[in-house]
Amino acid sequence: METCVYINGKMYHEREQAKVSVFDHGYLYGDGVFEGIRVYNGLIFKCREHIDRLYESAKTIYLDIQMSREEMTQAMIDTVRASGLHDAYIRLIVSRGVGDLGLDYRHCKKPTVVIIVDKITLYPPERYEKGLKVITTATRRNKPDSLNCQIKSCNYLNNILAKIEVIRAGADEGIMLNNSGYVTEATADNIFVIKNKTLITPPSYFGILVGITRQAVLDIAPDEGLHVETAGILVHDIYNADECFLTGSAAELIPVVECDGRAVGNGQVGPVFKALLKRFRQKTKDDGVQVFTD
Ligand code: PXG
Question: Smaller CB count within 10 Å for the chain: N or C?
Fold first, then answer.
């Protein structure tokens, strides 16, 4: 039971030894792409979806990973196996690689592939029971025509600036709006509202990362008798929703009970959220790529 880090084919079991060059453009410029993936009970959850998104992000930024999807999947399996962890978090990072100073990516001949297998706790456990208090942030989500939010890039300053606002305000999480004032997502999670048995989340073209957990929730919602819509949401819709929650690979599903000082619904974790969480948990048990063969 330990942390394990893969760097370009080598495995490291000590955090101190897992190092990359300061001349890596991932470090110098945030030039790279990543994924955050869960392992539940020895199964890599939504493995293909994460690998596909990684390669799509890489394609858009002209990053040739120089490994096939199958090789990358195998490297992930090997790293999880070497960690011995059956419930873990995988942070998969592909950066532009080591180059010279200056933005010219042509000096970076080989991307750096890092796979960290560790544990993650995004929010304190009691927040899952009692719900989050969120604020809307002054920092707007970057415009998709400047930096497409669908690229899961190593450049998270937009989200970090919002997160700093959240922490300084003493809130749990922040809701980021786009430049038209529509709700996009939280700082590293997608958002859903529920009103009259309809589940609503913003569409991709509003400027969001198209979350894999978001899709998992959209898939299970009809089984819960919910009508599903991807549509624009304003803060008014959060304030007046019956329920609201966030989704992400690290966060999983987490309820929101207050937004900008207004109670969402009755200010308690709602029944639809609880039912969806139960279904989601069930899915994580039997849906994934198997790591351990014995
Ligand atoms: N929006 C943003 C901006 C994110 O970064 C999500 C939504 C949810 O997407 P998924 O596919 O995870 O359902 C994310 C996910 C990390 C880390 O290591 C970040 C995320 C997920 C897991 C780990 O900081 N972001």
Answer: C
User: What count of other Cβ atoms lies within 10 Å of the Cβ of residue 161?
Assistant: 16
DSSP code of residue 106: G
What's the rounded Cα separation, in Å, for the pair 230 and 192? Answer: 9
For residue 127, give the amino acid letter. Answer: R
Determine the average pLDDT of the residues in 85-104: 97
Residue 288 burial class via C-beta count within 10 angstroms: exposed 0-12, middle 13-18, buried 19 and up: buried
209 lines ligand 1 (CB under 6 A): yes
User: Could you give the angle at the alpha carbon of 269 between the alpha carbons of 160 and 139, nearest 5°?
Assistant: 20
> What class is the 125-283 domain?
alpha beta
Cβ 142 under 6 angstroms from ligand 1: no
Distance CA(85)–CA(79), nearest Å, equals 10
35 lines ligand 1 (CB under 6 A): no
Indicate the domain borders of the chain: 4-118, 125-283
pLDDT digits (tens, 9 = 90+) for 193-225: 999 999 999 999 999 999 999 999 999 999 999
Q: Tell me the DSSP string of 33-61.
A: EEEEEEEETTEETTHHHHHHHHHHHHHHT
**What digits encode the pLDDT tens for the residues 122-156?**
888 899 999 999 999 999 999 999 999 999 999 99
Query: What pLDDT does 121 receive?
Result: 84
Protein residue closest via CA to atom 18 of ligand 1: 36
Q: Write down the CATH number for the domain with range 4-118.
A: 3.30.470.10
Our CA dihedral for 281, 286, 288, 290, rounded to 10 degrees, sits at: 130
45 token code pair: 């959850």
Closest Cα to atom 2 of ligand 1: 188
